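Methods — Computational structure assignment.
A single polypeptide chain was analysed. Its primary sequence is given first, followed by the predicted tertiary structure written as structure tokens.
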Amino acid sequence: MFPKNLTPRRLALRPVAKSDAGDLFRRVAGDPDATRYMSWRTNGSAAETEAFLEEVTRDSLDPHQQVWAICPTGDPTAWGTIGLVRRGTRVEMGYVIARELWGRGLMTEAATAVADAALATDGVWRVQAYCHVDHEASARVLEKAGFALEGITRRMHVMPQLGEAPQDCRLYARVRP
């Protein structure tokens, strides 16, 4: 349903693979700063990241889901991930990228390409994403990718690095006209 590969200007987005575990653990999943606002715990080992990727690659056989590895052009190794899950006529998007690439506009480029692809899919009318109310960088990514802030969802997601209580999140969306 979603394209397997996308090539925005400075990136190659390809299906994530179990073989990406080492790179993703070192660059993202094992980094408490990169995972601070994620809905999953910072990984303690590459084996933990590999187990997660095994689940994701198995789930990617479902045509309503896709997770891409984010690779800067010319570098086939994974520096982050971005994914979609379809729920009827809407799609939910989530992403994470290595700190070394923060502030370069690469995540905005990836989010724009993925949202464009989702909205070009038959039957999809809405792409939405959440970010913690204090996560200004993620809010900027979504706004620059054409998403509109729809409001604050109270006690929406547990973000383990921030505690056991569900956190307040901003809800952003792009819709088909």
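Note: The first helix runs from residue 21 to 29.
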